[in-house]
Structures are given as structure tokens and as C-alpha cells.
Amino acid sequence: MAQAFAMIHGKGRAEAFSAGSKPSGKINPKAIEAMKEIGYDLTTHKSKSIHEVLSSLPLGGQGWAAVVTMGCGDACPFVPAKHRIDWAIPQPKDMNKDDFRKVRDLIEEKVKELLSSLK
């Protein structure tokens, strides 16, 4: 969802990549439904591992402007970045719809704040 919000609110001025430490290979149906409620089709996204993202992107030794983690603790490998941020957002996969929406909305607000700070 964070990648989607970066695409929505970044409007081509920010590139975002989403990855997990233990991806299932599928997007959570609750995430697809929650994003559909706000008019975004998450079915075009794929669940990826951090290693998959790192190995597919040329960094030229520069790293990213920001790397955001969401409470992964020791499962996050070092990724070169100017800013490393942990939002400590709860894992919503087993939450009910209302709580899942709250997490979706929290992620959206955090993405907006981040994009604003990187101007």
C-alpha cells in the first residue's frame, strides 16, 4: 500500500519500491479490497522480497533518498539511504476490515509526510 500511495501522491516525482522480508508472492486480498475502496487497483502489484528489489535495481553506489521499514526489526538488511525511517506500523493482515482501513489510512498519511519532507 505504501508503494501505491507513493505513486498516487508522488505523481511521477518519486520512485517507490515495496518489498518484504518474507513475501508470500501474493498481495493480501484485504489490501486489494481496501485500496479498491479508494479507487486504486492493487492487483497490478506483486509481493516481492527485499533481495529481489535490491538485485533488480542499479544504484550506482548512491543508495536511495529514503528507506522506510514498517516494524521489521532485525529482518531488515542494510540498504544504503540518506534517511532510514521505521514507521512501526502494525501488520494488518489478520485485522478486521475497519482496523485494516485505519492502517491503510495511517500509511497514506505517513507517505504524504515523507514525500513532503523530501522536496
Question: Can you describe what's shown?
Answer:
- The structure is a single chain.
- With 119 residues, the chain is an alpha+beta fold.
- It has a single domain (2-117), classed as Response regulator (Rossmann fold).
- Helix content is 38%, strand content 10%.
- It has four helices and two strands; from the N terminus they run αααββα.
- The chain has helices spanning 2-10, 29-36, 50-56, 97-117, and strands spanning 64-69, 81-86.
- It is globular and about 40 Å long.
Keywords:
119 residues, alpha+beta, Rossmann fold, 4 helices, 2 strands, globular
| Overall pLDDT score | 85
- Name the beta content range: 5-15%
CATH class: Alpha Beta
Reading the helices and strands in chain order gives HHHEEH
N-C termini distance:
21 Å
- CATH superfamily assignment? Response regulator
For the biggest sheet, the summary is: 2 strands, parallel
Instruction: Look at the helices and sheets and give the structural class.
Output: alpha+beta
- Helicity, in percent? 25-40%
